[in-house]
Design goal:
β2, α2 and β3 form a beta-alpha-beta unit. The protein has eight helices and eight strands; from the N terminus they run βαβαβαβααβαβββαα. Helix content is 34%, strand content 22%. The protein has one domain: HUPs (Rossmann fold, 3-Layer(aba) Sandwich).
Length: 213
Amino acid sequence: MRLGILGGTFNPVHYGHMRLAQEVMEKAVLDAVLFVPSGQPPLKENDLASPNHRMQMVRLAISSNPGFMLSDVELYGEGKSYTVSTISALKQLYPADELFFIIGSDAFIDMPNWKEPYAIISSVNLIVAQRPCTSAEFINASLFVESLMHDPLQPDVSQLRLKGGRQAMLAVITQLDISSSDIRDRIKKGLSIKYLLPPEVEEYIRLNKLYLG
C-alpha cells in the first residue's frame, strides 16, 4: 500500500487539513493518508488541547472518508514528538507499505532546523504541498534540493531531486484560507466557526468547552 503520512497538532482539525490530504492522495496516487496528531510538539502551540481531545476530533472529521486513517503513534510516547522518531516508528508498524511523508512547502524550507533532517529525507518519500502563492524556484533553493524537474503534462506537479539520491513530489494544492489559530480565536470571541471545520468537530468543541480561554 502507498501510504501518506500527515502529521500536525490538528488543534483543531479543519477543512484545510482534509482538503490537503484528499488532493495529495489523488495526485500522488496514494491508497490512504494516515493522520498523525502530535503528542508534545517541539514548538509548543498556544491553547493546545489535550492529545485525547485532538485525537477524537480527527477521528470524527475523517470517519466518512475510507481513504483516511488515524494513528496514535505520537500520543503516548515520552518527551517531545519529533518527526524522525515518528517515521521510524511508522516504518516498523507498516513494514510492507511504501510511506510518503506529506509536508507543507514552508515547513520543507525550515527542515534544516529540525532534529536529524537528513535522516528524514533519506528514510522516507516526501510529498511537498506547494501553496499557489509559493514559487517552485523558492522551494528549489532549499538546502536539501539538488534540482527541480517540471512535468509538462502535469503543470501542478513537479519533481525535486534531493541530496542523497531520493526524489520528492512537489504538488500545488488548493489553499483554503482557514487556520486552527483563527478558529480558536473565533471561539474565544464567541464568533461562529461554522463551515470552517466539520460539524461533528464543531459539536465536539462545544460539548467539551474547548478553546474558551
